[in-house]
Design brief:
This protein has 258 residues and is an alpha/beta fold. The N and C termini lie far apart (45 Å).
């Protein structure tokens, strides 16, 4: 699967970046699925460049060069943009809400953290930003999927689960609360964003994957060629009957616990 990674094989020849496509979202919304399609049609090389593991992998390549008086975060973004901008001038990235909040806290711990502050940092960090706010309508399914992925350490169908996971009402409730908190922050940033923005859902991708890719291309004002190969061997859906059973069981237990 040609899922974008931090290795050199996914680097691009240096070209000026004219616009940034920022998928701002939370875990288990189909962001990897969307990113693979955008990569395949040449709309950037979007991936979680602000995941702690990937930040370290990029730094290990010794490509981050800090200019005089430049903040480290700015240097990192500039360095990644230099190697991951596709020939049409598009730089792609996906960012989870909690990743950006954590980075802002580290970058300026004394600053009052508000949606407007997070938005300002986002808009100032990237070249001509275009935002795709990606959500999932079924938030409980999102939380259950996150619980299973996190606890088993299997974030995609390509990675075998390290351990079997049992139903746990209390843990699922914690994941649901955390998911709802991050969605609230994401929507708050979405609301105050002043640059071009597009709202999409996981359910949109399920209903019409090719149409969703074309919608993003139109939003970016970029011409693409859609072929059948773009949708092949992308992300195998991890959710199954177990997820649905746990969803029903959780809702039943939630009523009992009220």
């Amino acid at each position: 699967m040609d899922r974008p990674r931090t290795s050199e094989e996914y680097d691009c020849k240096p070209v000026p970046c004219t616009k940034s496509c920022i998928i701002f979202t939370n875990a288990r919304t189909g962001s990897s699925w969307l990113s693979i399609g955008l990569y395949r049609v040449g709309l950037g090389v979007p991936m979680e460049y602000f995941h702690k593991r990937y930040i370290q992998q990029i730094k290990n390549r010794n490509i981050v060069r800090k200019n005089h008086d430049e903040e480290l975060l700015s240097a990192y973004i500039r360095s990644v943009t230099n190697i991951r901008t596709t020939p049409n001038g598009v730089f792609g990235v996906k960012i989870h809400t909690n990743q950006w909040v954590d980075l802002c806290l580290v970058n300026d711990p004394n600053q009052k953290q508000t949606p407007s502050y997070y938005r300002k940092q986002l808009e100032n960090a990237f070249v001509h930003p275009h935002f795709i706010f990606l959500y999932r309508k079924d938030i409980l399914s999102q939380a259950i999927s996150l619980y299973i992925a996190q606890e088993s350490q299997s974030w995609s169908s390509e990675v075998p689960a390290k351990k079997s996971i049992e139903y746990d009402f209390a843990k699922i409730k914690l994941y649901l609360d955390a998911t709802m908190k991050n969605i609230k922050i994401c929507r708050s940033i979405h609301q105050v964003t002043t640059f071009p923005k597009l709202s999409m859902t996981y359910e949109d991708l399920e209903a019409d994957y090719y149409g969703s890719i074309q919608k993003v291309a139109s939003f970016l004002n970029e011409d693409i060629i859609l072929t059948e190969d773009i949708g092949r061997n992308t992300c195998e859906k991890q959710g199954n009957q177990r997820n649905e059973e746990w969803k029903d069981r959780f809702l039943s237990d939630l009523k009992k616990n009220k």
